[in-house]
Amino acid sequence: MKEKYARLLLIKCLGLENKRPLFIQGNEYTREFIEIVKKEANKLGIDDIYVLSIDQTERHDLIKKLSLEEIITHPLFDKSIMNTYAEKGAAFLMLSSMIPNLMNDVDKDKLAKTIRHERETEWLYRKKQHVNEVPWCIACIPNIKWAQDLFPSEEGALDKLWNLIYQICLVDKKDPIKAWDELISSNKALCDKFNKLELRELRYKNSLGTDLSIKLPEGHIWCGGTINNDLIVNMPTLEIFTSPLMKGVNGIVYNAKPLLYNNVLIDDFYIEFKDGKVINYAAKKGFDTLKGIIETDEYSCYLGEVALVPYDSAISNTNVIFKDTLLDENASCHLALGASYPECMKGADNKEKDELRKLVYGDKGNTLLKDGLLKVMEGFTSMDELLRVIDLNDDFGNEDEDIKNAIIGKEVVSNTNNSTDNKEYVNPFIKNKIEML
Question: Tens of pLDDT along 42-52?
């Protein structure tokens, strides 16, 4: 059955019948399954396979032991190899195997900064993933600790968890790929119905105290959990989702299911919004982690996704809280903080840069360029990081180094040894004109 699961991930989630390179990420509990994936990939003619196996227990110990400065220079936290494979057009398989309570004793601010550093090292992969330029998929792999945490009094807990994964991922069907094609077709039909409604607002209420209004932007699109040629990015996926109006969220929402974020459990929490922004929140479990999510940056306190999931669904019907976001989010309607997806707005992929800036900031707000330059000047980020997230070629040239030099200014000064010394300064043009950007 594991071979069947591996083949489903390779074909239906990554489209690997086209023989592109394969990048696999996992941890100490996914190594056996990774070997199965590699064998199945070889059968499909894939021979360029890279495995990034990160021992999560070692990672936990290093985060506790090292300073943040030491973490930034330690090779375990450098995932830049993902950029190399993103440039090669590889498919990315992320195998998640939850380890209960692993990060509970780690300083939450330090953990958040470590995760941010790790993501910065894989910037090119993140960029291509966000716009679906590379196939990618996240899938769950059971382990004994996770299974015993869910079913502490049962013998054969690991087998039970594996069987549940097979069931909700349709691996137990005679033809899993056909079964997913049928489910995706049904999901698309549901998206079409919602798109025809052209909804203006969603309202949420429940017995826990939730009373929330979410306005939807004109031209929003409901999408399913697939990308190019119906490839599945989250295995499993049962949701339809869209982007909310950035400043159109008001009210309070209470969680009905726990959230596991980076192996830290967040539960018994609420979040209150006003004009789109989080203005209040609390949690009986995992408060510091929730705080870190909401306060990551100035935009992480806004909603980026609203998703609807049928109550009568494969995961919901198991009546199991898996304590894993990938699974639990597909058991209920859910909301996500942070960035929205371009495919959720009509014509977003074809919009000019100025139009996209207005979608994000509005007519009177900061532009991406102004906002980024201010952060550089205030020391919150670097010019290299700015160049990674915004395309300035139209204004300054075709090479990143030329763009950087044009913005911050750089002169080359010869000395008596005929060597060169680069001096950087804030370009007066930018300094004087920044308010006009």
Answer: 999 999 999 99
Selection from 355, 400, 344 nearest residue 124 by Cα: 400
Single out the residue of 367, 342, 366, 352 nearest to residue 217, CA to CA.
Answer: 342
DSSP 209: S
The 8-class DSSP code of residue 226 comes to E
Contact 205, 211 (CB under 8 A): yes
- Identify which of 134, 104, 110 has the alpha carbon closest to the alpha carbon of residue 122: 134
The Cα 154–Cα 150 span in angstroms is 9
Backbone phi and psi for residue 254, each to the nearest 5 degrees, phi listed first: -110, 140
Contact 128, 85 (CB under 8 A): no
pLDDT of residue 387: 54
- What is Dmax (Cα atoms) for the chain? 78
Partners of residue 69 on adjacent β-strands: none
The DSSP bridge partners found for residue 422 are 412
User: Could you give the residue ranges of the DSSP H alpha helices within 304-424?
Assistant: 325-328, 353-361, 368-377, 383-389, 393-396, 400-408
- Residues in the chain predicted with pLDDT less than 50, given as ranges, are 353, 356-357, 359-367, 377-379, 391-400, 402-404, 406-437
Whether the bond into 217 is cis, omega within 30 of 0: no
The 3-class secondary structure across 85-143, one letter per residue, is HHHCCCEEEEEECCCCCCCCCCCHHHHHHHHHHHHHHCHHHHHHHHCCCCCEEEEECCC
- Residues 279 and 252 sit within 8 Å (Cβ to Cβ): no
Q: 93 exposed, middle or buried (CB, 10 Å; 0-12, 13-18, 19+)? A: buried
Residue 38 neighbours by CB under 8 Å, 6+ apart: 24, 49, 51
Contact 48, 178 (CB under 8 A): no
Structure tokens at 268: 């018994």
Residues 6+ apart with CB under 8 A from 42: none
Give me Rg for the CA atoms of the chain: 23
* CA gap 79, 54 in Å, rounded: 10
